[in-house]
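ok so i was messing around last nite and threw this chain in just to see what happens. nothing serious, just curious
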Amino acid sequence: MRILIVEDEQKVASFLKKGMEENGFTADVAINGESAKIMSGQNDYDLMVIDIILPDINGLSLCRQFKDENPERPVIILTALGTTDDKISGFDAGADDYLVKPFEFRELLARVRVLIKRFSKTDSKQEKLIFADLELDIEKKKARRGGKEIELTAKEFMLLEYFMRNRGRVLSRNDIAEKVWASDYSFNTNVVDVYVNFLRKKIDRGFETKLIHTRVGMGYVFDESR
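result:
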């Protein structure tokens, strides 16, 4: 497995490269966005770790470009910017996970392994999910309800897919964070609430039958009725 680390701080980059290689990965370092673009064109990376603050380009723009080129290649944002708004901006740019500096390397390593495992199973997934009048095309990354196409961000799409694969089950915020954001109990679950609200507005607003329901003190359930 080959990983591209986009990080301009030499000590951090060396630390990440050494840690990844000690755990069986091949790791390359790009110190700026332009170098990352060149290296991405020359190598087939399985995952990318990108800092937001780079000397020549915003890491979110770089993330967005790489995800547009290959949606099935996971990206982790690794940055000192750690507010809820920062994280939402990262996920909206297409990031699959977001880790705030300072961090423990073993946590980053665990997230890398989870994402690689998750994306390696993509091809075996059912191509379409259908529930009530909602249809999710996994291969084409499109959603429709009542015949109307719904525009979703990458993270909203993943959240909806998780809901549809677990319809009728009560899903806690920690369950959702672990499966959709590859994060453990330390994850800020406010981000989950924000994204559920985004998704609810897109797939339930204007429809008599609501599909996303809140279970107070427990989490959320995806179903035609409470």
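not much to say yet. The CA atoms of residues 21 and 124 lie 29 Å apart.
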